[in-house]
Structure formats: C-alpha cells, structure tokens
Amino acid sequence: TLSRSREVYGPYHTTTLGVAAVLTMGLTQLGEAAAARSLGEDTLWRTQEVVGRQHLITLLTAAGLTMALAQ
Predict the structure, then answer these.
(1) Which of the ends of the chain has fewer CB neighbours closer than 10 A, N or C?
(2) pLDDT computed for residue 2 by the predictor
C-alpha cells in the first residue's frame, strides 16, 4: 500500500512514487477524481524533483492527473 511504502522507503523513494502514480490512475478510474487530483498533484511535484520531468514515473503521474482533471 502507499502508506506502507512511505513508511518503509520514505515519501521520495522511486518505489513509493511509482505506487502513488499507479494509485492516482486507479482512483481516477474508480471515479474518485478529487482524491486522484490531490495525490496526483503531490506525486507529480515529488517525481519531478526526484527523477526529473522525462522519467516514466513522472509521465505516468502526469497522465493520471490529467485524467483526474478531465473528470
């Protein structure tokens, strides 16, 4: 889970960021746009800081956030 990943690896670890990116997309698909937006915005900022703007995790997060904003 995301909370477990944050606990074990910390909020800036790539594993945690990947979990958050996938969860953002999952929340969007479940119609939880507000939760997806909140998580996606935070995760996008973190991924850009940690791995850069062109990294797969950053792009996945941006896609999930875009889908959430479109709902």
Answers:
(1) N
(2) 96
- The residue behind tokens 């800081």 is 49
The pTM score is 0.93
Q: Hunting for tokens 């995301």 — which residue is that?
A: 2
The residue assigned the tokens 């670890």 is 13
Q: Report the 10 Å Cβ neighbour count for 5.
A: 18
Identify the band that residue 65 occupies on the pLDDT scale cut at 50, 70 and 90: very high
> What is the token pair recorded at 65?
């956030």
Helix (H) or strand (E) holding 26: helix 14-29
Q: Give the model's confidence band at 35: pLDDT under 50 very low, under 70 low, under 90 confident, else very high.
A: very high
